[in-house]
Amino acid sequence: MKLFYGEIAHQQVTINDDEQQHIVKVLRMKEGEEIHVTDGKGKLAFGKLIIEGKKASIEVAEIKENLPVFNPRLHIAIAPTKNIDRIEFFVEKAVEMGISEISIIVTEKTERKNINIEKIRKQAIAASKQSLRFYFPAINDAVKLPDFLKSIDPENTYVAHCHENLERIDLKNIPSMEQVTFLIGPEGDFSEKEISFLAENKIKAVSLGNQRLRTETAGVFVAAWNYYNMI
């Protein structure tokens, strides 16, 4: 399947401008080839490619709507690493494994303050197409940890930290639920003050195992755990 991104509304399909350039200039696809277009919101159009100069469009044969969503829905709130390539690696792999939402959180020990969210969103779209996802994950703007907590339900939210002297739930003992949120800290972990603040807000602590994982590794690990639960 050749999957591209575009707008689908009222049986009308418009391929994204960047996608059109990719089709014509990079892939050099031929008119009449079969293509699929998704809006990233659960719709999928199928048809034949039409090439008009540098423009590409689709002769629609069928549109499918309300395709199945991934369940359970996973939301990871992760602190950005100093080397942004590591977060971009996490985003790509987590998207491939069906994550529903990613938030960037700024913590006390966060060194990188400036994040190119638009670049990360484009990477999420690319990973979604590569893995044939018809629902693209939400990529939220960076927000400070206290502000993030205002937007979530503590009942289904967990924080992964490395403070072994504090009580933590084993990951495999988390009950099954339709939606779950995980908080993952920066290099150097959450501060003790932040962990106390999270506990006061009824956020439960979770252990990811005996090894100390890097920020992006912890994110990928949680995404893989959730992916396994989808099967």
What does this structure look like?
The chain is elongated. The mean pLDDT is 93. The longest helix has 16 residues, at 215-230. 29% of the residues lie in helices and 29% in strands. The strands form two sheets. Strands 6, 7, 8, 9, 10, 11, 12 and 13 form an eight-stranded parallel beta sheet that branches. A five-stranded mixed beta sheet has the order 2-1-3-4-5, sandwiched between helices. Strand 3 (34-38) and strand 4 form a beta hairpin. The two termini are 22 Å apart. It is α/β, with parallel strands linked by helices and 231 residues long. The protein is built from six helices and 13 strands. The protein has helices at 17-26, 84-96, 117-130, 145-149, 192-200, 215-230; strands spanning 3-9, 12-15, 34-38, 44-52, 55-64, 73-78, 101-106, 138-139, 143-144, 157-160, 169-170, 179-184, 204-207.
